[in-house]
Design goal:
Part of the twin-arginine translocation (Tat) system that transports large folded proteins containing a characteristic twin-arginine motif in their signal peptide across membranes. The protein folds into two domains: 185 residues, no CATH class; 78 residues, no CATH class. It has a two-stranded parallel sheet with strand order 1-2. It is built from twelve helices and two strands, in the order αααβααααβααααα. α11 packs across α12. The chain is 75% helix and 2% strand.
């Protein structure tokens, strides 16, 4: 295929991926009550599963009800004429992207697959399943762990009793969206490292050598996407560090396999 033919092929894959996101977004738009009342504003309610879990842990540790929440001390408002309608549209598109993520990956794979050798295509068939599983695991982690911790800390934080926490709906949903999507993408770290190892840009030795620097970067990222308390940062840092160690193992396996392949070829 010529360069223009490749661009044409890419265009159709992008059109299909965009269409899937829009269709899923339309479904999310129609299911407004479920998307907003159950999912979006779920972390705002005291009966959210995360808060119930913290309450049980508090009682098991003999801390009475210090981690139990009966009501979160803030309200959500809309101060723009088209504020709620705009939030409805963009939240639906975000939900559409999350729902259609496996299909978007499939279109990406379909574009790249013709350039692969038969054995490469064979070993990359699980790419969509693995990437989707990691993304959804990260998104759930962001929704059930990061978002409640952030909302609980920031929603109850006051510099003075004279100031009442009444958050704009754009700000509330931006925090929710950032937590979910950021964690979903961060959990793709092993896949990224796999491809970097395949092209020879990363080795296990490199990752081990710079592990301490990676720890600092992870803590900085944790501080950015979580409330400024040590407990929340540790909760976020632990799974990311586990993914980093998994990436070392993955790159080691990739390098070993490449060496075996080259020896067999010779």
């Amino acid at each position: 295929m010529s360069f223009l033919d490749h661009l044409e092929d890419l265009r159709w894959h992008l059109i299909r991926a965009t269409a899937a996101v829009l269709i899923a977004g339309i479904i999310a738009f129609i299911a407004k009550e479920f998307i907003f009342d159950v999912i979006v504003f779920g972390p705002k309610k005291a009966d959210f599963p995360t808060y119930k879990g913290l309450c049980k842990i508090s009682k098991l540790l003999g801390l009475d009800e210090s981690l139990c929440f009966k009501e979160l001390p803030f309200s959500v408002q809309s101060r723009k004429v088209a504020g709620q309608f705009s939030v409805h549209i963009w939240t639906s598109i975000t939900a559409g992207f999350i729902i259609a993520f496996p299909y978007v990956l499939y279109q990406f794979w379909k574009f790249v697959a013709p350039a692969m050798y038969d054995n490469e295509r064979k070993h990359s068939r699980g790419f969509i399943i693995v990437c989707s599983a990691l993304f959804f695991t990260g998104a759930l982690f962001g929704y059930y762990i990061i978002t409640p911790l952030s909302i609980n800390f920031l929603g109850g934080y006051q510099v003075s009793k004279e100031v009442i926490n009444e958050f704009d709906i754009d700000s509330y949903i931006a925090l929710l969206r950032a937590s979910v999507l950021a964690c979903g993408l961060i959990f793709e770290l092993p896949v990224v490292m796999y491809f970097l190892a395949k092209v020879g840009l990363v080795t296990p030795e490199f990752l081990r050598k710079y592990r301490k620097y990676a720890l600092v970067i992870v803590l900085i990222l944790s501080a950015i996407i979580t409330p400024p308390d040590i407990a929340s940062q540790i909760i976020v840092a632990i799974p990311v560090l586990i993914l980093y160690e998994a990436s070392i193992y993955i790159t080691k396996m990739v390098i070993k396999k490449e060496k075996n392949t080259s020896l067999t070829t010779k």
